[in-house]
Amino acid sequence: MPPVKPMLAKAVKRIPPGMQYEAKWDGFRAIVHRDGDELVLGSRTGKPLTRYFPELVAVLLEQLPERCVLDGEIVVAHGGRLDFDRLSERIHPADSRVRMLAERTPASFVAFDVLALGDTALLETPLRERRRLLEQALAEARPPLHLAPATTDAALAERWFEQFEGAGLDGVVAKPLDLPYRPDARLMYKIKHERTADTVVAGYRFHKSGPVVGSLLLGLHDGAGALQHVGVCAAFPMRRREELVGELEPLRMGDVSEHPWARWAEEAAHEGARLPGAPSRWSGKKDLSWVALRPERVLEVAYDHMEGDRFRHTAQFRRWRPDRDPSGCTYAQLEEPVRYDLSEVLSARV
C-alpha cells in the first residue's frame, strides 16, 4: 500500500562491472500502485502526484496488470529530448491548468522495476527475476508507457553513458543482479557526467542556521555580455561557510544599483534575463533575498549537465581562479553534448 519510498543510488566515478545497467532518467521518480480501478502515483517523498498527470492515470489503468506496484520515472519530452523545465510546470495547484498542460505537454512513464504483481510481493526477489517479471508484464506496453532498456553488457552501458546525454538523460545506473528491493536504501550505483566551468561569483545567500554562507550565486556572460544567473554552489562544511563570509566581505556592495542583477526583486525583470530569486510555486514563502557582491571573483565549479541555460543540479566547488578574468566566464566554454533522439533511447536494443 502507498506510500512506498523508492530504492536509491549512491554516486560512483566509474561504471562497475557485473551488474544490470540502465539509463538514468531526468524526471520525477514515481512508484505506481494499481489495484483494479484505483491508481496512485507516489513521489520519492511519498506524496501523491496522481492529480498532476491525469493523462498517465488513464494510460496506466488501461495497460498495467490489474494489481501491481511499479517503480519508474515520469518524464516529459520536447524536441526529441527530455525537458525537465516543462515537466516541472506540470505541478500546479489549478486543476484547469493541470488539464490544459496534460494536453499541451503530455507526460510519459518509464518503468524500470516491479515491487508487486497480483498477490505476490517482490521486495525480497532478486533483481534479475524482478526484471524478467517486469518484461513479461509490459510485453505489450505502448507509448506513453515504456519499459526502460536494460543490459548486462558493460561495454554497451559505456556507449549509453556517452550517447544518451544528448537526449537529456544524465548518466547510467548500475544495479547488482542479486539485489532485493530496499525502499529508501542507497544500494544501487549512479554514474553521472562531470564537467568544469569557470563562473562569476556575484552574490551569496545566508545559511538557514545563521549568518554564514548558505550558497554562492553563480553567473555566466551571454553572447551580449550580460551576466546571467546559472545556479548555485552550496555544499560546504560549517567552518568553511563562516570563513567564506570574511573572504567575500571586501566584495560586498552597499549600493546594489550597479549590480547586473539589481532588478532581481521585480517580477517583470525575470522575463528577459536569468536572475536569482525568480518567483515560483516551489519557493513558496522561502526567503529568496541575497547579498550582492561585485562580480569580480572567478570560481571553477564542477557540474553534471545543463538544463537550457542553467546548471541542472547544484554545482560543486573546485577552486578559486584568481588568474581568470570574469569577462571570460561565458557560455561558450561549456561542452555541448552531441544530440541524440529520445526515441532511440526508448527503443535501445539490449
Automatic annotation (TrEMBL):
Pfam entry (one): DNA_ligase_A_M
Organism: Streptomyces sanyensis
Catalytic activity of the protein: ATP + (deoxyribonucleotide)n-3'-hydroxyl + 5'-phospho-(deoxyribonucleotide)m = (deoxyribonucleotide)n+m + AMP + diphosphate
Enzyme Commission (EC) number: 6.5.1.1
Family: Belongs to the ATP-dependent DNA ligase family.
SUPFAM superfamilies the UniProt entry points to: DNA ligase/mRNA capping enzyme, catalytic domain, Nucleic acid-binding proteins
Residues annotated as domain ATP-dependent DNA ligase family profile: 100-225
Gene Ontology molecular function: any one: ligase activity
Protein name: DNA ligase (ATP)
Keywords: Ligase
PANTHER family the UniProt entry points to: DNA LIGASE 1 (PTHR45674:SF4), DNA LIGASE 1/3 FAMILY MEMBER (PTHR45674)
